[in-house]
Amino acid sequence: MDMLCIICRKAVGNSITIKKPYLTHLDFDHYKTTKKNKIFYCKNCNHAFRDFTLNNNSLLFKSEKYINHSEDHKYFYKKKFIKQKKLQAQIIKKHLIDKKDLNVLDYGCFDGGLLNELLKYKSVKNAIGYDVSNRNITNKKIIFYTNLKKINHRIDIVIFANSIIYEKNLHSKLRFINTIIHNDTKFFIQIPDYVNRPILFSLVDQNHFFSRDSIKNFFFLHKIYLREIKSTVIKNDLIFISSKKNNHLNKNNILKKFEFNKLDKKINKLNKLLNKFKNTRNFIFGSTIYASYFSYYFRNFIGFIDEDLSKIDKPFLNKKIYNIKEIKKNNSFCFVFDDNKKLKNRLKKLYGYKIICI
Q1: In 7-121, which ranges are continuous DSSP H helix?
Q2: 87: number of Cβ within 10 Å
């Protein structure tokens, strides 16, 4: 029996098997399994998705580790770190908040961080969070639900901030959301840019891999039109807001754009260097998906290096995170795998030959 696309229900014939390591988005832990990480692609509606029989992410999202986990993703901008939640709230305020007494729903609100930021704006009357895990939301002003169908507010703004990619039953959830919105309800959607960051396919707890086109196609099926907006800081993700104009049905074949060989080139370059640096004090830069992914191949290293002082001395993948000044010591080197050219150039400028860019 052919695999059916979860959006258009057409038969899917294309697939790609992703190489190990397999990771989860929670601290980018290495995920051990004997099953293959296979991604399917639909030519009809331009959507990529995982074989759901290989993935039970509901167990992860209800685990004690997830419930107790706090999210503090930051961006380095103008010589300081800024929390992503603050940046998201600023974008929502600029593009979507245009009246008072708003009811805002954050679908997949996690620890309520984004709603905390939005509650700082007087225009937000009710901050409503939905998540599958029974989290302890500390801000009592947030109205929190683990059952979507119990929400009884008329919603003015709906937020999907990197949450829709984990949902299996997309259509049923959107059909219900359509019952609690009105004609002027606005949407904020943020998803990873999988086309330019194929390393994200190693995350086995994600179910959907949208492109610029397929996300528009999906929401179009529920009579919601989207347009993309650009952020000068959040550059690794795609951000969309609702639009009055129909912008869907631009069917480019996204799998042809994925540069999977970029990862292979990095791995090959690293393998050639490993013997050269076998007797040195080696570190991996960051506590990111890149750091986790390549640590699978790079066994001989002391720990991780980070510029964010709040992370220093904390564990990442059972290794210690060190202050970046550690690489000033004799015979110490730091390997940087991230695709961020500005980051690499800045580190090279500061630490010279001590930085090994892969």
Answers
A1: 57-61, 64-68, 84-95, 113-118
A2: 20
Of 52-61, 195-204, 284-293, minimum mean pLDDT range = 52-61
Nearest by Cα to 127 from 146, 141, 111: 141
Burial classification of residue 243, based on how many CB atoms lie within 10 Å of its CB (0-12 exposed, 13-18 middle, 19 or more buried): middle
Residue-wise pLDDT for 82-119, tens only, equals 888 999 999 999 999 988 999 999 999 988 899 999 99
| CA atoms of 125 and 121, how far apart (whole Å) | 9
Provide mean pLDDT across the span 247-252: 54
Q: List, for residues 197-234, the tens digit of each pLDDT value.
A: 888 888 888 889 888 888 888 898 899 999 999 988 88
Q: Where are the alpha helices (DSSP H) in the chain?
A: 57-61, 64-68, 84-95, 113-118, 170-177, 212-220, 261-274, 289-295, 341-351
- Report d(CA 109, CA 115) in Å as an integer: 8
**Cα radius of gyration (the chain):** 21
CB neighbour list of residue 89: distance below 8 Å, 6 or more residues apart = 114, 117, 118, 120, 121
Under 8 Å between Cβ of 24 and 203: yes
How many CB atoms within 10 Å of residue 228? 14
Cα distance between residue 316 and residue 265, in whole Å: 25
Instruction: Specify the pairing of strand 332-336 against strand 355-357.
Output: parallel
Cross-strand bridge partners of residue 104: 127, 157
Lowest mean pLDDT among 31-40, 75-84, 148-157, 254-263: 254-263
Does the pLDDT at position 249 exceed 60? Answer: no
Cα(16)–Cα(84) distance, integer angstroms: 31
Q: What are phi and psi of 101, to 5 degrees?
A: 60, 45
Locate tokens 């699978």: which residue?
Answer: 296
Dist CA 285 CA 334 (whole Å): 6
DSSP conformational letter for 56: -
Report pLDDT digits (tens) over 147-194: 999 999 999 999 999 999 988 888 899 999 999 999 999 999 999 988
Q: Which residue has the tokens 């949407």?
A: 187
